[in-house]
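tokens incoming
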């Protein structure tokens, strides 16, 4: 039988063993709870898969920010089937989730120095756009990878990098000599300029397909220009020579530019006066407008005649030399021709009364000269030609014996005597109306007719 001390000792051992058992059990419960939180609870939350052209030196644990505030972390980075980077980000800010269509992700650098100093800046889409469920994959077009400075510098050739170094060194020298104040003044306008530049670049990159086509087309243009680089170099050299020549004449150019304001002022007044002249001519033009169609038709009708004159022009050109010589002699002829024309005019003026008086007797003079001296000037004729009249011819003696008592006084053997007052025109054939027998202006006897 055990003593009381042994019994108490055994009970203390059992009590200590039971306490250790309870502590171990409690620790196991805690471990299981933590594992459940890590394994089960860790699978919860809102996640997005970002497809990027490169991981941009992101690492697990980098921050995810919206508007400069941390809203999550980078959870995992793997390689996708299309060889793009699959960056899984977990958004822990429940006020931000779920995100909407149009959300973009941009990898930015927290500072220039360092390697793993990147973070993901989210630009949430509009709230009226469709919601993005957890696990949605944003395409490459919705993500922008970070561009490292050394990647940009590696695209430059050695000569360009050397010039860039000289520019940076020159900027350092300019700032060290008191140019910092001017630089600070310039930086005040840098932010608006960068904002406008960002908006412009956003518009340019909005349509990536069009931008790609433009770049491809531009490469063809650049290739064509590069193929003619010798011609381009000569053109630039000629332009430099021209610029140098203009620079050498800067005084003359300055004088011209100094006179330009007054010249422009005079030109302005001239144009103003011209405007008034045009206003005055407008009614004339409006009146001439109806004539334009008729003039057009007249010119169209004259076109064949003008074509015909083409053959005549050479002949006219040949006549010009003798015509020029004849015209050259006219001034010398004028000295004698003008007095001769004056004398002829006076002579014609003096003969006017003679011509007027002899005009009525002209038929008698003509017929007397032609019939009396030269015989009959011509036979009878009509529309059918010449014709002859056949008549009875006899002497007047038998008629005197037979009809002597019928002969009027003053007529001897059929002949009338003492016709001394015959009117002008009586020698011609008397017209039916008697208009050519005599002129009332003459003192004559109308009965003294043939």
């Amino acid at each position: 039988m055990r003593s009381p001390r042994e019994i108490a000792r055994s009970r203390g051992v059992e009590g200590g063993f039971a306490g250790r058992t309870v502590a171990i059990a409690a620790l196991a419960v805690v471990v299981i709870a933590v594992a459940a939180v890590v394994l089960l609870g860790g699978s919860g939350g809102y996640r997005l898969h970002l497809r990027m052209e490169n991981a941009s030196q992101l690492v697990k644990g980098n921050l995810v920010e919206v508007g400069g505030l941390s809203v999550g972390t980078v959870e995992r980075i793997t390689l996708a089937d299309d060889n793009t980077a699959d960056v899984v980000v977990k958004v822990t800010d429940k006020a931000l989730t779920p995100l909407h269509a149009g959300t973009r992700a941009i990898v930015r650098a927290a500072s220039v120095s360092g390697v793993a100093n990147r973070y993901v800046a989210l630009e949430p889409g509009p709230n009226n756009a469709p919601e993005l469920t957890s696990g949605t994959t944003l395409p490459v077009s919705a993500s922008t990878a970070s561009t490292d400075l050394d990647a940009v510098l590696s695209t430059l050739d050695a000569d360009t990098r050397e010039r860039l170094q000289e520019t940076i060194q020159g900027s350092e020298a300019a700032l060290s000599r008191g140019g910092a104040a001017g630089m600070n003044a310039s930086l005040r306008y840098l932010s608006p300029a960068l904002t406008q530049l960002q908006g412009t670049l956003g518009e340019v990159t909005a349509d990536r397909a069009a931008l790609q086509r433009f770049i491809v087309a531009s490469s063809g243009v650049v290739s064509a220009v590069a193929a003619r680089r010798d011609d381009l170099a000569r053109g630039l050299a000629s332009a430099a020579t021209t610029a140098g020549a203009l620079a050498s004449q800067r005084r003359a150019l300055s004088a011209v530019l100094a006179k330009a304001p007054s010249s422009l002022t005079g030109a302005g007044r001239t144009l103003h006066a011209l405007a008034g002249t045009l206003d005055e001519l407008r009614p004339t033009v409006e009146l001439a407008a109806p004539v334009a169609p008729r003039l057009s038709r007249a010119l169209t009708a004259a076109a064949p005649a003008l074509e015909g004159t083409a053959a005549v022009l050479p002949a006219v050109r040949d006549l010009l030399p003798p015509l020029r010589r004849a015209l050259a002699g006219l001034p010398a002829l004028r000295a004698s021709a003008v007095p001769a024309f004056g004398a002829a005019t006076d002579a014609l003026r003096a003969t006017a009364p003679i011509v007027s008086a002899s005009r009525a007797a002209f038929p008698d003079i003509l017929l007397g000269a032609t019939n009396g001296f030269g015989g009959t000037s011509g036979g009878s004729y009509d529309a059918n030609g010449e014709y002859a009249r056949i008549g009875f011819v006899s002497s007047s003696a038998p008629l005197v014996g037979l009809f002597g008592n019928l002969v009027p006084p003053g007529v001897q053997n059929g002949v009338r005597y003492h016709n001394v007052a015959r009117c002008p025109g009586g020698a011609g054939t008397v017209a039916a109306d008697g208009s050519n027998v005599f002129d009332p202006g003459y003192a004559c006897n109308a009965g003294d007719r043939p």
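note: Residues 44-145 form one domain.
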